[in-house]
Specification:
By secondary structure, the chain is mostly helical. It has helices at residues 3-24, 43-74, 86-100, 108-134, 142-164, 167-177, 186-213, 217-222, 227-249, 255-266, 272-297, 301-322. 76% of the residues lie in helices and 0% in strands.
């Protein structure tokens, strides 16, 4: 482990702790230390802020890891769960669930489970389509065009569902799409944590094969890399990580593209283990900072991520065009 990585690791941890403390102290009321650790009149508000920090940490781990896996597998810095349409299809799946399950009474735990399952099932189906289509395209950049088309199609279907939806269902979907991190309950965090842990475990099993795959298909096969298994791991891990966050926080756009790009700029892109760790730490820091901005400005979280992400991606495109 190089000295530069140790410095980045230490600085990231300190920055995350500071950002988390700022999050806990951001809101309409000023809380005291005992509000977080003992029963008081503000204990419920303290619990909401703790949930907010926890869900931002999980999102910061999940979304950049999903983007990191896809960019390394497709060898394309613009690949990501939102650009390739995975987030849009996950949103469409959640829209179907919200609009058509409004009259069904289910316990909260089952509602959380079905919400996440619908999101994951939609993104998993799209990933299977993407990987099957990738065999027909020698230039994998065509997949990005396909992703934009899928996103547009999913957006049109969601608009149609909104047009015919009942008032309460429409309100529930709009609130979900805003990325309201203050509305995530502790039960939802438990479900999300399980899905994230499974996705991270699959990612852990994928890093070593990805190192071989980055050297070329023929070389990877000579090293004994099972390319079909690697493809399956990437499908499942990327879908679990991106769709589970989308299910509970709404579409958090562009973070899965930007964070891996920044990590490659600040550290050796060939060292995938260290890159993965940096992606998670930088992702947690960015999501915590976005949470503070969202709480201070009352602007939806997904709007903040888009305002931040779109200019950065345009700069990336212009830079690549110059090269």
């Amino acid at each position: 482990m190089s000295k530069k990585f140790k410095v980045l690791f230490l600085v990231s941890i300190i920055a995350i702790v500071i950002a988390a403390v700022i999050n806990l102290n951001t809101g309409f009321l000023n809380l005291h230390f005992q509000d977080f650790f003992s029963e008081s009149s503000n204990s419920q508000i303290a619990e909401i802020r703790i949930n907010r920090v926890l869900v931002m940490l999980l999102a910061g781990i999940s979304i950049p890891t999903s983007g990191f896996l896809m960019q390394e597998y497709f060898q394309n810095p613009l690949a990501g769960p939102d650009i390739l349409g995975i987030t849009s299809i996950a949103s469409l799946s959640v829209a179907f669930y919200i609009f058509f399950s409004y009259h069904i009474d289910l316990p909260e735990f089952f509602q959380n489970s079905f919400l996440s399952l619908s999101s994951i099932a939609g993104s998993l189906a799209l990933m299977l389509v993407l990987l099957s289509i990738s065999k027909r395209f020698q230039d994998k950049s065509y997949l990005i065009i396909f992703g934009f088309l899928v996103s547009a199609f999913a957006g049109a279907i969601v608009s149609l569902l909104q047009f015919y939806a009942e008032n309460q269902s429409l309100k529930n979907y709009v609130l979900w799409s805003f990325g309201a991190n203050n509305l995530v309950s502790r039960g939802q965090i438990y479900v999300l944590s399980v899905l994230v842990i499974i996705g991270l475990f699959i990612c852990f099993k994928s890093i070593k094969p990805l190192i071989g795959n980055s050297l070329g298909t023929a070389y990877a096969q000579s090293l004994g890399v099972n390319l079909n298994q690697l493809k399956l791991f990437i499908i499942v891990a990327a879908s679990l990580l991106s769709a589970s966050v989308t299910a509970f926080l709404g579409p958090i756009l562009f973070i899965g593209i930007i964070v891996p790009h920044f990590c490659r700029l600040i550290y050796n892109p060939a060292k995938l283990w260290q890159q993965w760790i940096l992606n998670m730490f930088l992702g947690m820091l960015i999501m915590l900072l976005f949470s503070v901005v969202a709480e201070k400005s009352q602007i939806p979280l997904n709007v903040i991520s888009s305002v931040f992400g779109i200019p950065v991606i345009l700069i990336m495109l212009l830079k690549q065009n110059k090269v």
